[in-house]
Design a protein that fits this description.
Layout (H helix, E strand, L loop, with lengths): L11 E7 L6 H13 L5 E8 L5 H9 L5 E6 L5 H11 L4 E5 L10 H9 L4 E5 L9 E4 L3 H17 L11 E5 H10 L7 H11 L4 E5 L1 E3 L8 H20 L16 E3 L1
Parallel strand pairs: 1-2, 1-4, 2-3, 5-8, 6-9
Antiparallel strand pairs: 3-10, 4-7, 5-7
Length: 266
């Protein structure tokens, strides 16, 4: 029996979480799709809509029309970026599963630097905007001073509590092997911005070495991160640390029944 295209495991899954992104998602989808079409490996593009209240769902549906390899989850309830990435990583089918931001701050060509590491057996590869992680890291369009200050201060605390040795845990361009993605995101619990820190902590807990490539990063207008979120992240770092110490991650997490999730495709 001939296998249908949708039943085949692609080499790469690209997951894009999206909330209210009507002003940015179109250009990002075009850039990611153009990159993927130029590759020799098989791929899928999976957009996870996090209960948007604007025109984002219509833009995604219109873009996907007539294009193979694009799927999307149109969730009407807003659950947070962490929940959306977790849902996408578990619903994806790729041998490698990469999540990237809807603002395209780290463009898809960075996967060219990641792929050789996966070919050599890596399970987790992340991009970093900090030269202390990777000498080639560069913020081509940097964040405002207050974001850099709060981010750097928060990162020192996050290193102390959760992920020592990684100076940029929040760059939204991370890739996991299918095995690592299943193990890490099935155990994860953070629905908000701290999911990045949690995913790296869980990767290390599972014995995966985290490899890093430098990001050529551009700060994009329209971020959903507020000043208050930086302080929430501190509290959530303590929470992650507590979960690690008390064995919470050894217990079943909230079930994410993907059989009840409608995944649209054209």
């Amino acid at each position: 029996m001939e296998r249908r295209e949708e039943d085949m495991q692609p080499y790469l899954s690209v997951i894009i979480p999206a909330y209210t992104e009507e002003k940015r998602i179109g250009k990002t989808l075009e850039a990611v799709y153009d990159y993927l079409r130029a590759q020799t490996f098989s791929w899928e593009l999976l957009i996870v809509l996090d209960g948007p209240t604007d025109n984002t769902p219509a833009i995604v549906a219109d873009f996907a029309q007539g294009k193979a390899g694009i799927r999307w989850i149109d969730r009407r309830q807003n659950r947070g970026k962490g929940y959306s990435v977790r849902q996408g990583m578990l619903a994806a089918r790729g041998k490698i599963r990469l999540f990237t931001d809807a603002d395209n701050s780290t463009d898809m060509t960075h996967f060219d630097r990641m792929q050789p590491l996966f070919e050599k057996g890596a399970n987790v590869v992340i991009a970093s905007r900090d030269a202390k992680d990777a000498p080639t890291a560069r913020q081509a369009v940097p964040q405002p001073f207050y974001k850099r200050f709060l981010g750097n201060a928060g990162n020192l605390f996050i290193q102390l509590m959760v992920v020592p040795g990684i100076w940029d845990t929040r760059c939204g361009f991370k890739a996991f092997s299918a095995e690592a993605a299943q193990k890490v995101f099935a155990a994860a619990r953070m629905d908000g911005w701290s999911f990045d820190d949690e995913s790296l902590a869980l990767a290390r807990r599972s014995g995966y070495q985290i490899q890093v490539v430098g990001a050529d990063w551009n700060d994009a207008e329209g971020t959903h991160v507020s000043k208050l979120d930086y302080f929430k992240n501190i509290a959530e770092a303590v929470r992650i640390r507590w979960y690690l110490l008390t064995g919470v991650y050894n217990r079943p997490s909230e079930a994410m029944d993907l059989s009840k999730v409608t995944i649209h495709h054209t």
